[in-house]
């Protein structure tokens, strides 16, 4: 109790009795925390890397606190389990994740996540709810994929409905989502308004961190926080487990060891390795992926099994590559590395030993599309992905891919499908050895989806080395590029695997969930020895 000053200037001091009474009342009064005293969970929750018996739960607080997770197998939370999770501290931007283990197959899991601050009062945030389904042995499988989010300045437009393709994906009730890279555009500033096609004005939510290219750790973190401002994204994240990988825009456009920012006036930080380090930290803080072991804690490539029907092989086509070059080398070397020797060896071994009917390779870039990266000092075309534009026998990075595809054929690994994004349009490619210049591989399909919320481009030309046949594309009209989501040319992919027939159906869908292409692939006969009821 403070002294009060009367209008005449005399000070009235509280009596000792009054102070004692106030003290007693304070001791016995209930404590009500003000909103500012309670941890906030503005980014909601994410569920990641769903696998047999386990799933990651991710969230973020706004202050030092401890993550708490309650889960049950019914919406009433009868017989619920409560886990005291990790601390959320400033070193990780107050992000935290908890691995749920021992989950039964084929069950709905209901979640409540909250944070308790680290004061003696232990103020609790309001819980954020979520739920997901663990895949059972008798379940069909359904998942979605896509990439390219908030690129080319097309951010969250609330008057448009936000990133509403996430709601279209949520409506199909997928069991999980493959986030195929370019989850943020750290190199693409987002302005308050942009003029779109036909003179339409696109209005963005804007935060300080997205108003310029990302250079500081706070700015890289801010890119992920920006996407989580969208209600569609947060609702999707609370229901659909995700499997994240990355590509270039998490750092900077087309980054590799040859990246040179010396003439890019947008950047005051010219050291690409330093930008990569900051971007890598932010990615691992915000991606709901299960951390790898201490041997390589930042490793992204991994296999996730979904029982006898499906194994997913998540690739990293960015971290181990050599420099972007003219890509014409006649012999393999560190300069022609794309996946890198260790990742290729891992992938070969995992594919050979997989007993799942379908092997989905989740790639962050297409194999046979020509994707340029300007020119080198000699004026030669420089290439960003595998293909080198010469339509000839394998050279440069194509040598690594030729070796992998040859191995797959000679080890009789069947039912492989490649899923990817990156090029900002929808496509279906059939790789046909009879049409290829390098022929020693088994035919396979590659499906491309995206963008989810970015500019639409394309089509890219196809390189004939591995004989890609362009069966389908959905792109802007000729002469048009970087179309906004207003144009409706935003795409995601949906995969359904039937438990009884083991057939895989791949649908490419637009921003409203309408099918623009569909292909059903029967499972190869060599898998008949698998027990369909296992």
TrEMBL record:
Residues 145-508 form the PhoD-like phosphatase metallophosphatase domain. Keywords: Signal. It comes from the Bacteria. Residues 43-134 form the Phospholipase D N-terminal domain. The keyword Signal applies. The keyword NADP does not apply. Residues 1-33 form the signal peptide. Gene3D superfamilies: PhoD-like phosphatase. InterPro entries: Metallo-depent_PP-like, PhoD-like_MPP, PhoD-like_sf, PhoD_N, Phospholipid_Metab_Enz. PANTHER family: PHOD-LIKE PHOSPHATASE METALLOPHOSPHATASE DOMAIN-CONTAINING PROTEIN (PTHR43606:SF1), PHOSPHATASE, PUTATIVE (AFU_ORTHOLOGUE AFUA_6G08710)-RELATED (PTHR43606). This is Alkaline phosphatase D family protein. It comes from Methylomonas albis.
């Amino acid at each position: 109790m403070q002294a009060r000053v009367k209008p005449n200037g005399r000070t009235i001091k509280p009596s000792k009795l009054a102070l004692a009474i106030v003290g007693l009342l304070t001791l016995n009064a209930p404590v009500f925390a003000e909103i500012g005293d309670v941890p906030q969970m503005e980014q909601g929750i994410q569920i990641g890397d769903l696998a047999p018996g386990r799933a990651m739960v991710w969230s973020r607080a706004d202050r030092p606190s401890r993550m708490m997770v309650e889960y049950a197998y019914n919406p009433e939370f009868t017989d619920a389990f409560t886990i005291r999770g990790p601390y959320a501290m400033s070193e990780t931007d107050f992000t935290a994740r908890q691995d749920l283990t021992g989950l039964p197959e084929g069950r709905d899991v209901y979640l409540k996540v909250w944070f308790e601050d680290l004061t003696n009062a232990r103020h609790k945030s309001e819980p954020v709810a979520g739920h997901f389904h663990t895949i059972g042995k008798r379940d069909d499988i359904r998942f979605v994929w896509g990439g390219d989010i908030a690129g080319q300045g097309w951010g969250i437009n609330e008057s448009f409905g936000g990133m509403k393709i996430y709601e279209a994906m949520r409506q199909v009730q997928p069991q999980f989502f493959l986030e195929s890279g370019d989850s943020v555009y750290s190199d693409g500033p987002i302005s308050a308004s942009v003029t779109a096609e036909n003179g339409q004005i696109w209005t963005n939510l804007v935060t300080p961190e997205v108003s310029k290219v990302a250079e500081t750790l706070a700015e890289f973190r801010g890119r992920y926080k920006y996407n989580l401002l969208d209600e569609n994204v947060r609702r999707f994240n609370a229901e659909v487990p995700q499997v994240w990988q990355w590509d270039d825009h998490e750092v900077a456009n087309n980054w590799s060891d040859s990246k040179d920012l010396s003439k890019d006036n947008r950047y005051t930080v010219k050291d690409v390795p330093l930008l990569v380090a900051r971007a890598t930290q932010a990615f691992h803080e915000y991606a709901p992926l299960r951390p790898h072991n201490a041997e390589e804690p930042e490793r992204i490539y991994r296999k996730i099994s979904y029982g006898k029907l499906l194994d997913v092989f998540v690739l990293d086509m960015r971290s181990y590559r050599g420099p972007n070059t003219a890509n014409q080398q006649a012999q393999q070397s560190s300069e022609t590395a794309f996946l890198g020797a260790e990742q290729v060896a891992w992938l070969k071994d995992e594919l050979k030993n997989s007993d799942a009917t379908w092997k989905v390779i989740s790639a962050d870039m297409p194999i046979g599309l020509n994707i340029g990266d300007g020119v080198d000092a000699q004026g030669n075309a420089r290439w960003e992905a595998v293909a080198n534009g010469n339509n000839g026998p394998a050279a440069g990075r194509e040598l690594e891919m030729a070796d992998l595809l040859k191995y797959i054929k000679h080890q009789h690994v069947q039912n492989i499908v490649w899923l990817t994004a990156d090029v900002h349009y929808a496509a279906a490619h059939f790789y046909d050895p009879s049409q290829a210049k390098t022929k020693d591989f088994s035919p396979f399909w590659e499906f491309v989806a995206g963008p989810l919320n970015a500019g639409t481009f394309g089509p890219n030309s196809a390189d004939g080395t591995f004989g890609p046949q362009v069966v389908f594309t959905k792109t802007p009209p000729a002469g048009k590029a970087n179309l906004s989501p207003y144009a409706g040319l935003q795409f995601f992919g949906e995969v359904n695997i039937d438990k009884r027939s083991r057939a895989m159906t791949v649908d490419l869908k637009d921003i409203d969930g309408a099918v623009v292409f569909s292909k059903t692939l029967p499972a190869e006969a060599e898998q008949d020895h698998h027990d369909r009821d296992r």
